[in-house]
């Protein structure tokens, strides 16, 4: 198949616009967003916007074109399928919808390693969405080397266009459609900006394994010798918070590639959750929310136009999108050497998992494929106890290939690098949510530091009979009792019942990978009574 002519598509869409703002910088985009209505400046100068009915992603409305390239490779259990002609009809209708409107074009890069780089053009009628993606991807003046051979990607963003399921093959009037063969993305019917950045990640996740690169939904920072540490975790587990460490330069916040030569950031910005954000607990992120050019999504403002980060009237998924270079400590070039440490974060609301556990390579792959955390009771009507959440590879909605493809790549990378893997629980201790208490951030940071700097290489470990991993017996600066969850419960038998329940949930979730995957990926979880 000949290469698709992205230049012609981009030129056609841009030339049909009523006007074109080409690669405008933050002041221009902020002025346009405020002038268009629906956006306002906070007291500190950040841009506050609302996303309307959609305050998060719409994974059930994501579709991939089923063609010769994707038919036998895509994990169709995780993605809807569109016929090529349906995609083309949708694209033609979106082009017609955008014609005659003022458009904002941003030409950006994805991938700090030029060898695996994408040349991304986003065309949108929304100034604040243009600012958002300008913050989140790599700008061409960022000092990141640009490749002449970067893979072209074109994203047509039409937040007010309504798809027709009968005509376009969509599920609803909202659609996120990806053509992997031509690297075209169509986004319609949603103003939630995260769909734009995640579509780039989805493309990368599909193509990267063929290039020998493991795509990862994780944050990453640098140790003293330039080696990377990786932080995998679902929303609310502390991925952004814990990777932001003044003593360890940040490579990136959310999306990375692990090549044979090291780790590189896919993005040029951060998309941080802001619910209950405070200057005391997260000073770097809090400071970023006060900068001109930062986009605050669905954050409630008080009467003085100050962000009220504890107000979840609109959603708990409030966000700040800002350029990574506003942070005080970042890695030069957004790259790092081969990782020495891999951390899997979870917020266990069942009160079962220890705050820290050392994983064997097989156990690391098992927990990578499981992607566990838990929702707390009370966040949804009718939810009276914690609910387990499993997301394969800690990012199932963005993984177009079967999870075992990425699991096998992780196993290979761990074997080649000798990196040590850890499970870090930032959730509850002494009981489940509502009875126990959340592990304090100071203890979590102390445990993480000990794992990163090698303090735990030769300490005494106990074998956990439920999960098979090793748990340190003593970590300076941390109460020894905290390291053994059962001891923290007032009723040991109640802990055993809760632990058995969680083990069963892990087992049930892993059934989808089949018995062979279970045996290869990690130990079968054993009940203490067995």
TrEMBL record:
One GO CC term on file: cytosol
Catalyzed reactions: oxaloacetate + ATP = phosphoenolpyruvate + ADP + CO2
Chain sites annotated for binding Mn(2+): 198, 217, 254
InterPro entries documented for this protein: PEP_carboxykinase_ATP (IPR001272), PEP_carboxykinase_C (IPR013035), PEP_carboxykinase_N (IPR008210), PEPCK_ATP_CS (IPR015994)
Alphabetical UniProt keywords: ATP-binding, Cytoplasm, Decarboxylase, Gluconeogenesis, Kinase, Lyase, Manganese, Metal-binding, Nucleotide-binding, Pyruvate, Transferase
Entry binding sites for ATP: 198, 217, 233-241, 282, 319, 438-439, 444
Positions contributing to substrate binding: 57, 192, 198, 319
Co-factor note (free text): Binds 1 Mn(2+) ion per subunit.
Cofactor(s) of this protein: Mn(2+)
Pathway stated in the Swiss-Prot or TrEMBL entry: Carbohydrate biosynthesis; gluconeogenesis
SUPFAM superfamilies cross-referenced by the UniProt entry: PEP carboxykinase N-terminal domain, PEP carboxykinase-like
Keyword Lyase (UniProt): yes
One Pfam family hit: PEPCK_ATP
Kinase among keywords: yes
Similarity section: Belongs to the phosphoenolpyruvate carboxykinase (ATP) family.
Descriptive protein name: Phosphoenolpyruvate carboxykinase (ATP)
UniProt source species: Devosia lucknowensis
Gene that this sequence comes from: pckA
């Amino acid at each position: 198949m000949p290469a698709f002519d992205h230049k012609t598509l981009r030129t056609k869409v841009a030339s049909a616009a009523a006007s074109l703002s080409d690669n405008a910088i933050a002041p221009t985009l902020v002025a346009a967003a405020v002038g268009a209505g629906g956006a306002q400046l906070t007291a500190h100068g950040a841009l506050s916007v609302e996303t309307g009915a959609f305050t998060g992603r719409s994974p059930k409305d994501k579709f991939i074109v089923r063609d010769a390239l994707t038919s036998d490779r895509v994990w169709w259990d995780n993605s809807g399928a569109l016929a090529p002609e349906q995609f083309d009809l949708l694209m033609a209708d979106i082009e017609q919808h955008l014609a005659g409107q003022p458009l904002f074009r941003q030409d950006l890069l994805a991938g700090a390693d030029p060898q695996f780089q994408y040349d991304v053009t986003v065309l949108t009628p929304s100034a604040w969405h243009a600012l958002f993606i300008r913050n989140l991807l790599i700008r061409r003046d960022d000092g990141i080397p640009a490749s002449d051979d970067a893979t072209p990607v074109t994203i047509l963003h039409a937040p007010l266009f309504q798809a027709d399921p009968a005509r376009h093959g969509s599920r609803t009037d909202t659609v996120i459609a990806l053509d992997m063969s031509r690297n075209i993305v169509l986004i319609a019917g949603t103003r939630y900006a995260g769909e734009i950045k995640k579509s780039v990640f989805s493309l990368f996740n599909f193509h990267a394994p063929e290039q020998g690169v493991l795509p990862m939904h994780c944050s990453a920072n640098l140790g003293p010798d330039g080696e990377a540490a990786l932080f995998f975790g679902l929303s609310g587990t502390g991925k952004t918070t814990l990777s932001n460490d003044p003593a360890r330069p940040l490579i990136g916040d959310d999306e990375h590639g692990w090549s044979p030569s090291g780790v590189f950031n896919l993005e040029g910005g951060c998309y941080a959750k802001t619910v209950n954000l405070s200057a005391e607990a997260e000073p770097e992120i809090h400071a970023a929310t006060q900068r001109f050019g930062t986009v605050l999504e669905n954050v409630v403002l008080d009467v003085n136009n100050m962000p009220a980060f504890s107000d979840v009237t609109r959603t708990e998924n409030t966000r700040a999108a800002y350029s990574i270079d506003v942070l005080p400590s970042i890695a030069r070039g957004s790259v790092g050497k081969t990782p020495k440490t891999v951390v899997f974060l979870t917020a266990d609301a069942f009160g079962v998992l220890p705050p820290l556990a050392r994983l064997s390579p097989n156990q690391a792959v098992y927990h990578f494929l499981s992607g566990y955390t838990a929702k707390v009771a009370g966040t949804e009507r009718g939810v009276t106890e914690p609910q387990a959440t499993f997301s394969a590879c800690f990012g199932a909605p963005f993984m177009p290939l079967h999870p075992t493809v990425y699991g096998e790549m992780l196993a290979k990378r761990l074997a080649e690098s000798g990196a040590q893997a850890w499970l870090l629980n930032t959730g509850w201790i002494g009981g489940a949510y509502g009875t126990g208490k959340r592990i304090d951030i100071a203890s979590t940071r102390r445990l993480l530091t000990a794992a990163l700097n090698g303090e735990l290489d030769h300490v005494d470990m106990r074998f956990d009979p439920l999960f098979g991993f090793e748990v340190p017996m003593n970590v300076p600066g941390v109460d020894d009792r905290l390291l053994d969850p059962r001891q923290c419960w007032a009723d040991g038998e109640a802990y055993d019942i809760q632990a058995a329940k969680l083990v069963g949930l892990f087992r049930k979730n892993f059934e989808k990978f089949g018995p062979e995957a279970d045996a290869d990926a990690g130990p079968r979880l054993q009940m203490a009574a067995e």
